[in-house]
Amino acid sequence: MKHLPQLFENNRVWAGELRKSDPEFFTRLCRQQAPPYFWIGCSDSRVPANQIVGLRPGELFVHRNIANIFVHSDLNALSALHFAVDVLKVSHVIVCGHYGCSGIRASLVGERHGLVDNWLRHIGDVREKHRHRLASLAEDDEYARLCELNVIEQVRNVSNTTVVRDAWARGHSLAIHGWIYGLTDGLLVDLGVSGRDEAEINASYCRAAGS
Ligand code: CO
């Protein structure tokens, strides 16, 4: 018995179309991957990394988790960052959140789901850190702003890792960016938190976070 036949049929069509447009595509990709970008995004099925930035296989190295959180003790995320920076030599790390993030919503309204609540506690920490800025906002605006602030905080977390600090110390040209994606229009917005060194990140963090 064949399981999920539609997905295999979709795959056959997809691979066939790629081969038709570029007969050497898979042969070339087999030899090596050299993506210039590392993407840290939400696992949300509505935010497919490659598709929203129009990149093909081989062009984007991707790490996704619930609510695009990057914490200092997450060995999975740190390993992906290390591999992207030290082995693949990417030039850009993009932290991309999205409005309407269910993880952020759950944290905001205090919904209980079980184990994942502990992961989402990181969002609660972001909210507490910025509580004075969020306090004056209406509910929908607070939700949207917390989605943004979460990206802004994760950019800073990425920039504080030994991986990024060591890369900058070696003179590796590495920029970090914070973006957010709109589920309602499919468009990306640059949150203005970005930089190629600690000073640039810190200055842009203060502007973007409003401090
Ligand atoms: Co999300």
Question: Could you give a short description of this structure?
Answer:
This protein is an alpha/beta fold and 211 residues long. The chain is built from 10 helices and 5 strands.
Characterise this structure.
The chain is α/β, with parallel strands linked by helices and 211 residues long. The chain folds into two domains: 1-31, no CATH class; 34-209, 3-Layer(aba) Sandwich (Beta-carbonic Anhydrase, Chain A), CATH 3.40.1050. 51% of the residues lie in helices and 16% in strands. It has helices spanning 5-21, 25-31, 49-52, 75-87, 102-109, 116-129, 131-134, 139-159, 162-169, 198-209; strands spanning 37-42, 60-65, 92-98, 175-181, 188-195. Strands 2-1-3-4-5 form a five-stranded mixed sheet. Strand 1 (37-42), helix 3 (49-52) and strand 2 (60-65) form a beta-alpha-beta unit. Helix 5 (102-109) crosses helix 6 and helix 8 runs antiparallel to helix 10 (198-209). The chain is globular, with a radius of gyration of 19 Å. The model has no long low-confidence stretch (mean pLDDT 97). Cobalt (II) ion binds at residues 42, 44, 67, 98, 101-103.
